[in-house]
Amino acid sequence: MVVKLNATASALVYSTFLGGSLDEYARDLAVDGTGSVYVAGWTLSSDFPTANPMQSTFAGGVYDGILAKLNPAGSALVYATYFGGTAEDRPTGLAVDVHGAAYMTGLTFSTDLPTLNAFQATPHGQRDVFVMKVTDAAVCNPFVFLANKVTLKRTKQHTPAGNIHSNGTLLVEKGDPSTYNSNLTAVGALTIQKDNTINGNVKSSLAVSNAGTVNGVISVGPVAIEPLPSKSYSAGGLNQTVPQNGALALAPGSYGIVTLNSGGTLQLTSGEYFINELRYPGSTAVIATDLASGAPVNINVVSNLQLGKEVEIRLLPNGESDSELVTFFTLQSTAVNIGKEAYFLGNLIAPNAAVALAKNSQLRGAICANEIVVERDCLFLHHDSPGTLPGAGNLPKASESEALAFHGDQTDAAGYGLLQNYPNPFNPTTRIGFKLQKAEHVALVIYTLAGQSVRELVSGEMAAGQHSFVWDARDDQGLPMASGVYLCVLRSASFSAQTKLLLMR
Q1: Exposed/middle/buried for 105, CB within 10 Å: 0-12, 13-18, 19+?
Q2: In terms of DSSP bridges, do strands 150-152 and 170-172 run parallel, antiparallel, or are they unpaired?
Q3: How many CA atoms lie less than 13 Å away from 414 in the CB half-sphere?
Q4: Checking CA distances to 283, which of 81, 105, 360, 407 falls within 20 to 30 Å?
């Protein structure tokens, strides 16, 4: 049995059985900062209750070890698993760290006890000691990004870091130039476009296409699928609203819809939160979490997590160094957006959703999702990466000319494309190129930002292949155009694209 008494031992908080149809022995117990309880022992039962197990069946012999985690209310198993070989296995000690990882030790007579990353992979005597570490199924592996598909867009920030893994494809788009202090692994194709430097190893099960610089080993060989974290929970309760430019403190617990308005501060503390929706319709809001106890905070969202423009995840009192203590988990299948110029500290786990880290955002932590897209000019660091983030609102931004410049060729898989114009900014001329997969009618037109046509460079049938035209910064009447930003739009029957041009007189 597992029993919790109140602080004065005058009443039960909860009391629960934990076992199968034969004998169970509980040998040790630990409690983490959220109040979750961990139990280690051994069993004779083949029907011991399991949940999210790493070993789901009794392996044989006299006893198998068991390890179980109960939620803070004692009402459900977070996980429960057998651990043993075909002989006798008896856990005797248990500890838990601040991140929720469980450490179990004991003795074994089994020659086939499961091992992983072992210091000693085989037994040396009739009876050996074992030591194991188990992380929660709802915790990311040691990657800054883990997903079934990963796309990194160009960045000028110095220098993103952290290992990146995709269970499908991994694409590093044309750099700015861009540098990453990362090891890249992909089960599918791994593509590194030009103007990228990877300070690390690159490996794919399928193929590596590299047009950049890799200061490490490039290899093609088996790459294991990394399971995405999993979790099940529900939420419900009163709706809560953080007022505009105001503050609201919420204790750990269960809530309905929590709305965070512009300029507001949502104040949390260590513990478990269960929320149906966490809405953020505005900008420049703060989620401030008091982690002075050293215990983690878990924000579990059921159906809708959105973190809007300029959101700041503020950790008190230690800031960035406590990023591992914070986890946002959402079960939603709709897209999750971390808004433009966000400052995010912690883990974001969305195993069913696509996650976008918007332009000019900062991340210290990890994202695990079905798909991850990292937009332009983001700076990301894993929990363990050296260095620090510039801080909320302090990330260097591209200059106006850099932001408007067209970087790279805008092409599709069929071979159509609006090619990089050069120079940009320009005065007095710039060359604009495009390519066609087949002969067809093409229009290439310059517009003002208001949508007014300025100059029609091309209108008619063009042969397949690559073409280029010069714009001399004059309109259709031959009059010079003023300094400013213009749109170049390419349209054909099969393809359309546009880019911005900056004329500087």
Answers
A1: middle
A2: parallel
A3: 10
A4: 407
pLDDT(400) > 50: no
Do residue 204 and residue 180 come from a single domain? Answer: yes
Instruction: Report whether pLDDT(424) > 90.
Output: no
Residue with tokens 């999750």: 336
Are the CB atoms for 78 and 50 separated by under 8 Å? no
Beta carbons of 256 and 237 less than 8 angstroms apart: yes
Do 249 and 221 belong together in one domain? Answer: no
| Cα–Cα distance measured from residue 372 to residue 179, given in angstroms and rounded to the nearest whole number | 19
Looking at 307, 330, 353, the residue that finishes a domain is: 330
H or E element: which one contains 286?
strand 286-290
Omega before residue 222 within 30° of 0, cis: no
Q: Please give the residue range of the domain that contains residue 11.
A: 2-134
Each residue's pLDDT tens digit, 42-57? 999 999 998 777 788 9
Strands (E), 182-264: 184-186, 190-192, 196-198, 202-204, 208-210, 213-214, 218-220, 240-242, 247-249, 253-260
Same domain, 186 and 255: no
Whether residue 425 is preceded by a cis peptide bond, meaning omega within 30 degrees of 0, is yes
Pick the closest to residue 47 from 57, 37, 32 (CA basis).
57
Give the sheet arrangement for strand 484-492, strand by strand.
453-462, 440-448, 484-492, 496-503
pTM of the shown model: 0.67
List strand residue ranges (DSSP E) for 32-163, in order: 37-43, 64-70, 77-83, 89-96, 102-108, 128-134, 145-147, 150-152
